[in-house]
Amino acid sequence: MAQMASFAKDACMTSWIRFGLESYLYNLKNTLEDEEKGAAAAISPQDKKELQDMIDETLDWMDENPEADKDDYSAKQKEVEKVANPIMRQFYSGAGGAGAGAGSGGDSDFDYGDDEL
Fold first, then answer.
1. Helices and strands: H and E segment counts in the chain
2. Which one, of 96, 86, 93, 97, lies nearest residue 107 by Cα?
3. Whose C-alpha in 55, 84, 86, 99 is 20 to 30 A from the C-alpha of 24?
4. Helix, strand or coil for residue 112?
């Protein structure tokens, strides 16, 4: 009985972590395409391509690896954050242009999710 509970807990945790990674990727993708926030124009074409490629590759990896466990998803999220966080930090700190961080209170109000790095 304890094994079943442990398995169920692990499966639930894996689903939760997978959902978190997928959500993070789609949020990044939406930010890159959002003309209203200015990210589409404010992030350099090279950085934008790097992020878009990383997003697409990670979504493909998720489709190709449905058996991945929570450690796999956590490791993949850290890989994405390692690329995305510096680019997005620059954008939200205002270095990305006039639309970046407008009315957001700057860097202190944004959670980059890299506390564990």
1. 4, 0
2. 93
3. 99
4. coil
How distant, in Å, are the alpha carbons of 2, 81, 93, 99 from that of 74?
A: 25, 10, 26, 32
Burial class (CB in 10 A: 0-12, 13-18, 19+), 99: middle
Cα–Cα distance list, 5 to 68, 70, 74 (Å): 20, 16, 22
**CA angle at 44 for the pair 40 and 48, rounded to the nearest 5°:** 65
16-24, Cβ contacts within 8 angstroms, sequence gap of 24 or more: 17/70, 17/73, 17/74, 17/77, 18/62, 18/68, 18/73, 20/73, 20/77, 21/58, 21/62, 21/73, 21/76, 21/77, 21/80, 22/59, 22/62, 24/77, 24/80, 24/81, 24/113
d(CA 101, CA 117) in angstroms, rounded, equals: 23
pLDDT single digits (tens) 72-104: 999 999 999 999 999 988 888 875 444 444 444
The pLDDT tens digits for 1-47 are 666 666 677 778 889 999 999 999 999 999 888 877 777 778 889 99
